[in-house]
């Protein structure tokens, strides 16, 4: 068992045991120690940032390719890639991390609800224009 090598390492993450699956200069992937299903893994940038917007783009470039490798390595046919930002969005650890969670059956893996809101097309168009002008 190893510990993640982060620069600079937040104390909370530095103290968590780590079963390292893959490591590069910018990224670390390891098994989740409280998994939702077999093969549940985390992929994290080594650059410390609490939220996604705190991490420079060049430190995020390997995240999805590594998550894809983990999907293939675990043989997951159905899975979730999850990333939360802030306590209200269910982020428990103050360091950006992406979950790769196999969903082998109805009871294992991530369970979610999707409370859709009724759409007002005029408001949606206004929101679209506002966001698009800032991208």
Describe the structure.
It is a single chain. The protein has one domain: HIT-like (HIT family, subunit A). About 5% of the residues have low confidence. The chain is built from three helices and five strands, in the order αβββαββα. The protein is of the alpha+beta class and 135 residues long.
List the helices and strands and how they pair.
Blueprint: H1 11-14, E1 20-23, E2 27-31, E3 41-45, H2 63-74, E4 79-82, E5 98-102, H3 121-134
Antiparallel strand pairs: 1-2, 2-3, 3-5, 4-5
Organism: Staphylotrichum longicolle
Domain HIT: 7-110
GO biological process, one term: nucleotide metabolic process
List its traits:
single chain; 135 residues; alpha+beta; HIT family, subunit A
Summed up, what is this model?
The chain is of the alpha+beta class and 135 residues long.
């Amino acid at each position: 068992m190893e510990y993640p090598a982060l620069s600079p390492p937040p104390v909370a993450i530095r103290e968590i045991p780590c079963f390292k699956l893959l490591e590069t200069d910018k990224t670390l992937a390891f098994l989740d120690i409280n998994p939702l299903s077999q093969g549940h893994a985390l992929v994290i940038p080594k650059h410390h940032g609490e939220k996604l917007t705190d991490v420079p783009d060049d430190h995020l470039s390997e995240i999805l390719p590594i998550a894809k490798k983990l999907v293939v390595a675990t043989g997951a046919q159905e899975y979730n890639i999850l990333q939360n930002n802030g306590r209200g969005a269910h982020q428990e650890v103050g360091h950006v991390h992406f979950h790769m969670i196999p969903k082998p059956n109805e009871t294992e893996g991530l369970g979610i609800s999707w409370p859709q809101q009724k759409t007002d097309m005029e408001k949606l168009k206004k929101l679209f224009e506002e966001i698009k002008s800032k991208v």
